[in-house]
């Protein structure tokens, strides 16, 4: 395409001018020279440059009405409400081309990136927004949202703290800060580094090993002949003992995760109290937890 080759030729001319201007910084010059070589290899531009692309870009930006950028931002907001996130991203990109120093545009584009699942770009846009307005509380909160998605909880807490400091009456920011602090205290870690995801992976691996063990199949075969609760409980105890023997560390991790949940801890405490009252485990079905209300159909008429 001759037009594209001509455009690339104009762009290469600009890059060569930049190489001269940045001659005092060899690393940057080397990067620009590589870029020029790649463009020339692909497009093979010919002839002298027709226009000064840098001046053309500046003129176009300066002559663009401010209202156009605002209208594009509003269009992006509308598309976000309609859950058309890719289209919203295009609108925010166009708005930024017209007003590249507007922090709201970057903050809004960060929201689109989050919806599209590109959290690293969302982090970068939130940081760009804060570069142009360090006191923009929504950008701090959005940065916290993106950091939370990639489990960088300490940094997310710092971002939410700054948002709350700037806007202390915003309950949404405070709630996000509280939730993230709690996750940090509970020691949440990415699935690839342990935590709940690591436990799930460990369970899957242990299950695969158990199902290839003939003794497990023998235990499971009893289930077909089980005709009482007691025999089912005995089978469950045998399976639990075998699982614990195969992977004691996994069981310790599961116990730690369960005990970190206050609701589960209360339930375990209740069961232990009931078991202590009936050491043989034959006292019938356990009653409701202390203070629990009976269901409607169990209430007296």
TrEMBL record:
Database matches in InterPro entries: SGT (IPR047150), TPR-like_helical_dom_sf (IPR011990), TPR_2 (IPR013105), TPR_rpt (IPR019734)
Annotated Gene Ontology cellular component terms: membrane; TRC complex
Superkingdom of this protein's organism: Eukaryota
Keywords, alphabetical: Repeat, TPR repeat
Chain spans, region Disordered: 269-301
One GO biological process term: post-translational protein targeting to endoplasmic reticulum membrane
Molecular functions per Gene Ontology: molecular adaptor activity
PROSITE patterns, sorted: TPR (PS50005)
TPR repeats: from-to residues: 69-102, 137-170
Protein name in UniProt: Putative small glutamine-rich tetratricopeptide repeat-containing protein a
């Amino acid at each position: 395409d001759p037009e594209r080759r001509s455009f690339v030729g104009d762009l290469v001319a600009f890059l060569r001018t930049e190489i001269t201007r940045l001659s005092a910084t060899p690393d940057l010059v080397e990067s620009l020279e590589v870029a020029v070589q790649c463009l020339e290899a692909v497009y093979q531009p010919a002839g002298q440059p027709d226009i000064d692309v840098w001046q053309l870009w500046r003129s176009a930006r300066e002559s663009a009405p401010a209202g156009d950028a605002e209208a594009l931002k509003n269009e992006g907001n509308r598309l976000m409400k309609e859950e058309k996130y890719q289209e919203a991203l295009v609108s925010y990109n166009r708005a930024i081309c017209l007003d590249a120093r507007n922090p709201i545009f970057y903050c809004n584009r960060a929201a689109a990136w989050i919806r599209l699942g590109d959290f690293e770009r969302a982090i970068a846009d939130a940081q760009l927004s804060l570069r142009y307005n360090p006191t923009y509380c929504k950008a701090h909160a959005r940065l916290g949202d993106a950091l939370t998605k990639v489990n960088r909880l300490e940094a997310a807490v710092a971002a939410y703290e700054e948002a709350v400091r700037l806007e202390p009456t915003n309950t949404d920011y405070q709630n996000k800060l509280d939730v993230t602090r709690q996750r940090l205290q509970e020691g949440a870690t990415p699935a690839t580094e342990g935590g709940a995801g690591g436990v799930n992976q460990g369970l899957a691996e242990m299950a695969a090993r158990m199902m290839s063990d003939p003794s497990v199949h023998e235990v499971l075969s009893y289930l077909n002949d089980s005709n009482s609760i007691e025999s089912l409980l005995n089978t469950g105890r045998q399976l639990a003992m075998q699982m614990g023997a195969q992977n004691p560390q996994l069981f310790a991790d599961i116990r730690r995760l369960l005990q970190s949940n206050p609701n589960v801890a209360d339930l375990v405490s209740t069961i232990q109290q009931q078991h202590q009252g009936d050491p043989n485990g034959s006292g019938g079905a356990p009653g409701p937890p202390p203070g629990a209300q009976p269901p409607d159909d169990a209430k007296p008429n």
